[in-house]
Amino acid sequence: MRQLKGSAFALLLLCAGSGLALTGQVQAFPGQIELTVIKVPGSPDFEVVEEHGAGPRQIWCAAAEHARDVARLPTAQRLYIARGLGVSDLAGGRKTVRFSPGPVAAEGPRQDGPYTITLRDVGASLSIGHALSYCDDRIEDLFDRF
Q1: Which of 8, 66, 92, 104 is deepest in the core (most CB within 10 A)?
Q2: Sorting pLDDT into bands at 50, 70 and 90, what band is 117?
């Protein structure tokens, strides 16, 4: 395992030393991507559009930032998945996750483990504060792994 970590670090140094731009890689980290959020008409719900290679951490981060900064919700409040990742009419057929600031009925038992961040399980929730913690991951975290 130590050899793999050293090899990855050497590759990073080689890329940096050769002048290769790392901006595309930096954009893959939460807090570095700006995702589109669409308000659901007539509802407190909103959708986060999956784009720029964003994964669950980035999507939850965007939802939490919207809830805190736009909807002005307290960080102790929970966000719930109202509709799992899927094609949205609001986003012109692009994939979104719909979030709600109020509880929604779960569609069935969760399929993932306790440490999995889901985008599919209706009724799954995180506090806004917890979801905001996904925004704190920066490029420095990459170096903590070596």
Answers
A1: 66
A2: confident
